[in-house]
Amino acid sequence: MSMNNTITSTQETTNLPLIEQIKSDFIGLDTYYKIATGETTRRIYMDSTASTLMMGAAFRAGEKFLQHYSNTHSEMHFGAKIATESYNWTHQRILDFVGADPDEYTCFFTGSGVTAGMNRIARALNHYRPEKDIVLVSIMEHHSNDLPHRKHGGKVHHIPVDTHESKMGCIDLDLLESYLQKYDNQVNYVSVTGISNVTGIINPINRVAELAHNYGALVVVDAAQLAAHVPVKMSGYADQNFNVDALLFSGHKTYAPGSPGVVVIRKSFLDDIEPEEVGGGMVDRVYESDYVVKASFPDREEAGTPNIFGAILLGASVDILDRIGMDKILEEDMMLTNKTLSAMHNFDDIVIYGETDTNKCPRAGTISFNIKNMNHGLVAAILNDYYNIAVRNECFCAHPYVEKMLELTHSKQIQRVKEENITDWHSEPWMGMVRVSFGLYNTEKDIDRFIVALDDIIHNKSKYIDNYFINDKGDYEHKSFKFTGNNYFNLRNSISEEIR
Are 225 and 275 in contact (CB under 8 A)? Predict the structure, then answer.
């Protein structure tokens, strides 16, 4: 009896729920820097919308794979067989992760994020239905889900987003339908973000798909932010209009830095279109004056030696996310986001951009804001230098969306920019926001620390402003505190240490 009790007790202390095990197992969580006060403190990483930290368990799984590393596309020796099997498994695992039927959809890797894949999709869909020359995107898109369509997709029209009390919110389905009606039978596809990288607002991608399909348009989803925060189901609905035609996301935003971008798309869109990239691995036969492209996916879309290790890391990461449960991850994510929003609302000096009523427009993982009478760059610098809180500022590669929201607080400046036709937004230091964003590893204690920092900054504006100057790069730099990266990491020195 006593032995059984001992075993149970050990299990209770070591077998934490998987989400708790993983939350504390990210590379870089225990990184310490010396800050402006002279203290050395642990970094609080709140820049996950730009790039997430590496999931420790996924990284270690990847390291074990390296013991067998070889190129793919062969099974004639042991390592090649393991590499090929693992790489193929990753493709299938990602299809399952986003709920895409493998009989209808393919998954392939491209570039280092969504950008390369979106360029490929824009070209492909333009060739697929050349008679339809209009693309609809929302005003809230990242440049990666806007510029490729402008260059390769056709004539791009931007859909305004829902405005509740003059605050920009999620996609307005009625407005979208009015555009689909206006350009009836001319719209090739609608391309929307799943989660805004500026506000964290979640869009109803399957309802967008239903609406677009009713008007003969296809649907592309930029899931760069969505994939790590929200459960995704691309296909399998009783009403097939809810199915998504193409979806893209980024490994470096899904806890696997260094991983490639992912494209999941219906095979039928690519069957009759030659791949953009040609080279080894995507052909069946090469003649002196001709070549034959493979019919099989994903090989035909992955010319050359792929980023095998990066793909393995990503496969491991999404497998772990699924084991935790994306519903559980979203629940925790929204709890942190709502806790932060609620606390920030207590400050009259803080302006939060985008709809903040999460019953109207749910949010996950991201909040952008400004402190009145303080530059966004200065606020970001103070959070870093005095609190070791890593955030991001400026326009987050979403200039039209940011500029539209800044009309709430900087209408006079924006009017001047338009009247004077100013094209370089760097020359306008007011144009931007501070963005705080969360990952699976962030905790309520991190949020509490962030709120304490905001309270301190708001009540000591003059002191902090006096401590900074704007350097030649246009950044806010502390007058006396200097951070030297070489004190913490120098690549050449690290190499030297490893080869001693």
Answer: no
User: In this predicted structure, what is the pLDDT of residue 420?
Assistant: 79
pLDDT of 338 > 80? The answer is yes
Tokens found for residue 419: 């009247």
Return the sign of the alpha-carbon dihedral for residues 332, 338, 341, 342.
Answer: negative
Give 416 or 174, the one with higher predicted confidence.
174
Tokens read off for 327:
């519903």
Confidence bin at 427 (pLDDT 50/70/90): low
Helices H, strands E: what count in the chain? 16, 23
Distance, CA of 177 to CA of 190 (rounded, Å): 11
pLDDT of 120 strictly over 90:
yes
Block residue for tokens 């189901």: 233
Query: What's the predicted TM-score (pTM) here?
Result: 0.92
Cβ proximity of 372 and 454 under 8 Å: no
| Interval 291-325: pLDDT, tens | 999 888 998 888 889 999 999 999 999 999 999 99
Look at strands 246-250 and 54-55 and give their pairing: unpaired
In a 10 Å sphere around its CB, with 0-12 CB exposed, 13-18 middle and 19+ buried, how is residue 252 labelled?
Answer: buried
C-alpha to C-alpha distance for 322 and 327, rounded to whole angstroms: 9
Q: Going by C-beta distance under 8 Å and a sequence separation of 6 or more, which residues neighbour residue 191?
A: 118, 135, 136, 137, 141, 145, 149, 153, 219, 220, 221, 222
Closest CA to 335 of 351, 352, 358, 354: 358
> Are 408 and 164 contacting, i.e. CB atoms less than 8 angstroms apart?
no
- Work out the angle between the directed axes of helices 56-66 and 78-97 (0-180°, nearest 10): 150
Structure letter (DSSP) for residue 203: P
Instruction: Give the domains, in start order, of the chain with CATH numbers.
Output: 15-45+325-395+432-487 (3.90.1150.10), 59-323 (3.40.640.10)
